[in-house]
Amino acid sequence: MAGTTLPTPLYGLYQQEIGFSELVVTLVFAVYALAVITVLLVAGNYSDDVGRRPVLLAAMAFSAASAGCFLLERGLPLLFAGRLLSGVAAGLLSGAATAAVIELARPGRKARAGFAATAANMGGLGCGPLLSGLLAQYAPRPLTLVFWVHLGLIAVGCLITWSLPETVEHPKRWPPLRPQGVSVPDEVKGVFVPASVAAFAGFALLGLFTAVAPSFVATTLDVHNLAVTGAVVFSVFLASTAGQSLTPMVGVRRALPVGCGLLVVGLMLVASSLIAQSLPLLVVGALCGGTGQGLAFRAALTLIGDAAPAHHRGGTISAFFVVAYTGISLPVVGVGAMATWLGLRTAGLVFSVCVMVIAACAGTYAALRPPMERSTEPAARASDSL
To answer: Across the chain, what does the average pLDDT equal?
Structure first.
């Protein structure tokens, strides 16, 4: 997952080298999200049939191809291709890796496995910009070294994945794809809407930080250190991981509205940082909003995974991620479009207000009509389906 966010602090360098507008930056990011959504729709449930391990190895192959595009980068076409391949990798990983981690856990250790999946998902997304920011700022070859490091990490991941047992019983040998679209079993629909709306708002915040925050930091806050930029983006994902770890203590039914409330406060702080041109306020907003996103995200997945039948769990989780990745792409493209004629600062303020409204609506609905939890084994699995 770290590979999907490696280019985040580097967009400014690509802009200087190639020459393109802020809108193009958001379009490059949107291509990634579009690829994720397409793969989830077409092959989101494929690992339920063919097995987890082949899908994971295929995802890492696409991730390696993405790194190759950035190493060969000579202009926008390869930049778009690299992000497209990275999106395919993330789409394959989202459902399959989550399910594999949970299924590999021994009985009684599913909660620990769930947190491991949480750390790998959001922690990996956060480590990507932190790693590339540090290497770009303090090491030679800022646009290539980090991708060589990434290829080394992929090789290690492939060796480990190859050594693990397959968790799907009687996997089929490359059956034909059965595109499912956004298919949600009837027993999940009652919790899917409020949970997915909350995820949409939370992922919109993550999209803002991964696609546009580097430009905010450089142009609005006049901070040009790439390591600082990477650390700012890392902070929102670190907070998300922390928020997810707090969900069991808060309780799933309370975590969804509480998380949405913290998300609203975090967005207010982000908006205030743009008005006051304050980096500390932006970091505090990232930490607060990220914590809220993490609380709401884990609660949403817990409730959805709890309601989903085992043989549809991978597909249901993939449908949830379709909504989430729509949130991480469409609003950010809107920011890029508005920035061309309103300015980046005003576009960020409009974005913050719109996402605040969405998060407030989802949180209010979840507070007034709290979804039911189960106390059975499926509930334990759901809590781990991150």
So the answer is: 85
